[in-house]
Design a protein that fits this description.
Blueprint lengths: L21 E3 L6 E3 L19 H11 L5 E2 L6 E2 L1 H4 L8 H4 L22 E9 L5 H19 L20 E6 L1 H6 L30 E7 L2 H14 L4 E10 L32 H5 L14 E10 L1 H5 L3 H8 L36 H5 L10 E2 L2 E7 L5 E11 L6 H9 L8 E11 L11 H5 L1
Helix pairs in contact: 4-6
């Protein structure tokens, strides 16, 4: 079961001139820049597609009660009244920017970035006649587009979907599947960590919604910004790769609670308490590939396991709160272990009740998944919830798009999942319907693109 990440704070900047002053706020304790004034468009400026999203920010904020009128003579976008007014900065949600290349980090954005409100997971297969050169050109285009969009700018031939929006914490993360190396003639450079995951007894996997040559994770705090990125990247792939599968998810919007809190999943459980923290001395060792790894192109990268896990919510919601807490091993209201304390209080796995039985049942999800029960193995969980309508029996087609990060899937995800597979009390309420494993290279170097050391090395 996934846990919400409490990962590193994203690099964040105001949409106007850079300002080192920031204030703390938003979900996950991220640093939110103080609002910055954004210059209004020049008088008489046209709203051509190449106009950047940042350029419109002041105009949109200043439009105020008058609004922006679509239609009228010639279907023009009326902004004349706004151009003479003082520009208004975006709210903190819209202005937050995550760097495509973080100065002090080698990993891609979207791994330790605080959870965003909306997300898309999408996989592509290279075109039948594609080769290594084709793959390199595609990743070059994708990297260029991602960098533009994450900075709040619009790429060439833009659709205009997010023209009046700021970066909104947009992140785009790229990964390579096991089959990518066969398609590009690079099997000798495929890491052993990318070997296919074993079968688990609870699996009911749909091959059409699993794996893929290439994988993209998109996250943002605005749904239009996320869709805009998805559409731009899909257009970039035309002729080089075809869509294999897509999954859409969501989380709580930053600022929706009075103070930052760990998210809840669709079962109503606080989800993410035990995530490794960047402040942990062994965080990098657990999550990122070591600098002395055999495959040099993956050093500083990570491995993502992706699972579509449908929750049997009708069955779950029939259980009493007491039964649910026994299944999880934590209180539902505040996430505290059944042995007492607060959400962050360590579980006392050896505590017994007056009946002599463990207070946290032997098959409780939190007990089985705990690092102490798995020789210290831990995952950085960074999921999205999903709801794709209702099934024929009326049950919600809803659950978790589970995404977890680790330096070695065999020693982390596989080890933990095998143990959960043997007796997790939560398993009867879950269905694992899709799966994928992807090697996520480090961030692109200045002037380069994600995966360049592999494809051009």
């Amino acid at each position: 079961m996934s846990k919400q990440t409490s990962g590193k704070k994203a690099t964040q900047k105001a949409t106007g001139k850079r300002n080192p002053g920031t204030r703390t706020g938003g979900q996950g304790g991220g640093r939110v820049p103080a609002p910055a004034a954004v210059p209004a468009p020049e008088t008489g400026a046209s709203l051509a597609p190449e106009l950047s999203r940042r350029r419109l920010l002041g105009t949109v904020g200043a439009a105020g009660a008058a609004g922006l009128v679509v239609g009228g003579a010639g279907g023009a976008l009326a902004v004349t009244a706004a151009q003479d007014a003082a520009p208004t900065a975006l709210t903190s949600i819209g202005s937050t920017e995550v760097a495509f290349r973080e100065a002090r980090a080698t990993h891609q954005a979207g791994i330790t970035t605080p959870l965003q409100a909306t997300g898309h997971l999408v996989a592509f297969d290279l075109a039948p006649d594609a080769d290594r050169k084709t793959a390199a050109a595609l990743l070059r285009r994708w990297s260029r587009t991602a960098e533009e969009l994450m900075a709040g700018r619009t790429p060439d031939a833009d659709t205009g979907v997010a023209l009046d929006a700021g970066p909104s914490s947009l992140t785009v993360t790229f990964g390579l599947g096991h089959s990518f190396f066969d398609r590009t003639g690079l099997t000798k450079r495929r890491p052993v960590q990318l070997d296919p995951l074993p079968d688990f007894s609870a699996d009911a996997l749909d091959p059409g919604r699993s794996n893929g040559d290439l994988w993209i994770q998109i996250g943002a705090d605005d749904a239009l910004v996320a869709f805009h990125a998805l559409r731009a990247l899909q257009k970039d792939a035309a002729g080089s790769a075809r869509l294999r599968w897509q999954m859409n998810g969501f989380n709580r919007t930053p600022g929706a609670t009075a103070q930052p809190r760990t998210a809840r999943n669709l079962m109503g459980q606080i989800d993410g308490t035990n995530n490794p923290k960047p402040s942990d001395k062994d965080f990098d060792e657990r999550i990122f590939v070591a600098r002395d790894a055999d495959q040099a192109w993956m050093r500083g990268g990570s491995y993502a396991v992706v699972r579509r896990i449908r929750m049997l919510l009708d069955d779950w919601e029939k259980r009493s709160r007491h039964e649910q807490e026994k299944v999880i091993g934590r209180r539902k209201d505040n996430g505290a272990p059944l042995t007492g304390g607060s959400e962050t209080t360590p579980m006392r796995l050896d505590a017994t009740g007056s009946d002599g039985l463990p207070v946290i049942p032997a098959n409780a999800h939190a007990r089985i998944a705990a690092p102490a029960s798995n020789q210290g193995a831990a995952l950085l969980r960074r999921p999205f919830s999903f709801h794709d309508g209702f099934r024929e029996d009326g049950a919600p087609d809803a659950g978790l798009l589970f995404v977890c990060w680790q330096a070695d899937p065999l020693r982390a995800f596989t080890q933990i999942q095998r143990k959960l597979d043997r007796g997790d009390a939560l398993s009867p309420f879950l269905r694992h319907e899709a799966s994928g494993l992807f090697a996520v290279p480090p961030a692109a170097e200045p002037g380069g693109y994600v995966g360049r050391p592999l494809l051009e090395g």
